Amino acid sequence: MSGDSDIARAPSPFDVERVRADFPILSTTVHGKPLVYLDNAASTQKPRQVLDSMRRFYESDYANVHRGLYQLSVRATEAFEAARCKVGRFVGAESCGEIVFTSGTTTAINLVAHGYGGDHLGPGDEIVLTEMEHHSNIVPWQMLAGRTGAELRIVPIADDGSLRMDEYERLLGPRTRMVCVAHTSNALGTRNPMRRIIDAAHACGAIVVVDGAQGVPHEKIDVRELDCDFFAFSGHKMFGPTGIGALYGKAELLEKTGPFLGGGEMIHSVTFDETTYKDPPHRFEAGTPDITGAVGLGAAVDYLEQIGMDRVEAYERDLLDYGTRLLEEIPRLTLVGTAAEKCGILSFVIDGVHPHDLGTVLDMEGVAVRAGHHCAQPVMDHFGLAATARASLALYNTREDLDVLAASIPKAIELLG
Ligand code: PLP
């Protein structure tokens, strides 16, 4: 069901050409040029192993879950729940029940804000966020603050894109109830010192919600080692399908979290007078879930485990160093986000060239990069920018991809500026 035979041929030791062969889209062309896909922070491409697992599931095991007493529904339910356990094991959860399937990071954070924050926060309570958050780790907390009278406290960033830890520690206090922070910034690439952040929050009795969207695809995550309370991530950024993601929550905190969406499958019983809810994680999975998406996410986890996250991290670190050196040599180009601890994100601006125009010209060369505010407008405000261009790396990128990027930028500058 999970494509084990395909996965068994995954590379050892890390062999990028073999990895690339697993991703059919990487051998396609754009505007007649070989595709150089460098928008992985937005979404990653999918390996055959994930695509095959979903096709196989639809062809031979598909039915709705947790409902039918018939064979097929039992098999589908087993596959869905097996995927939950795989995802849980991958991020180091203590039990499968600590993983809630959601449609992605955004829904996972909204679930915590609504279901936990709504019941536990009141006027004067403080929620600490950072200036580097993605909008999906800002807006739900703003909405919660509006409903409850809680207040937001914002940790600033330094000009290299690192978090001002001195300011963070200063902002924590007896009213701090929640700390909501990105594991890794999607706009700058900064990897935050999570253990230090979490320990300091716990020392003042706060709950920590980690936006792990840009962490899980690039390094080994162990939620128990981090000791975070909630951890949210998206399947589509880790080589799985769109429409599925997960929220990890410590069992005792999920217990204290109220339902987010109401409907079928999340209840024990319903009368017009009273409804009682299931235990976590099913309490948070109202309606028919993305069953095949979960199976695909399980296959993505198998794929990554087969390669080994330590090797992924080491490989991408080397690529980042290489790409940084190349871009630093380009006249008029300034990197935005140069913290010492970074993942494979190269955000940059070019004097006199609008990032959107640059993105369009790079596309003509087959190079897919993002241009915009990256759903992190406070980051742009910090640097006094409206937008940056962003090349973001994944395990299938190569030094040659970065050579093409670096060779295309001066051509674009000549054309545009
Ligand atoms: N958080 C971060 C750091 C992200 O990079 C993203 C997506 O770019 C999100 C949250 C939102 O993820 P999704 O759109 O999958 O819910």
Sheet with most strands: strand arrangement: 4-10-9-8-7-5-6
- Which distinct ligands sit in these coordinates? pyridoxal-5'-phosphate
Kindly state the mean pLDDT as a whole number? 96
* Beta content: 15-25%
Residues in helices, as a percent range: 40-55%
Under CATH, the homologous superfamily of the largest domain reads Type I PLP-dependent aspartate aminotransferase-like (Major domain)
Radius of gyration: 22 Å
Any overview of this molecule?
The protein folds into two domains: 6-45 and 308-416, Alpha-Beta Complex (Aspartate Aminotransferase, domain 1); 53-305, Type I PLP-dependent aspartate aminotransferase-like (Major domain) (Aspartate Aminotransferase, domain 2, 3-Layer(aba) Sandwich), CATH 3.40.640. The chain is built from 15 helices and 17 strands. It has 417 residues and is α/β, with parallel strands linked by helices. It has helices spanning 4-7, 16-21, 48-60, 71-91, 105-120, 139-148, 165-171, 194-203, 223-226, 251-255, 291-307, 309-328, 355-364, 377-383, 399-416, and strands at 29-30, 33-34, 36-37, 99-102, 126-130, 151-155, 176-182, 207-211, 230-234, 245-249, 267-270, 275-277, 333-335, 345-350, 367-368, 370-372, 388-392. The protein starts with a helix and ends with a helix. Strand 11 (267-270) and strand 12 (275-277) form a beta hairpin. Helix 13 crosses helix 15. Pyridoxal-5'-phosphate binds at residues 41-42, 104-106, 134, 136-137, 182, 186, 211, 213-214, 234, 245, 375.
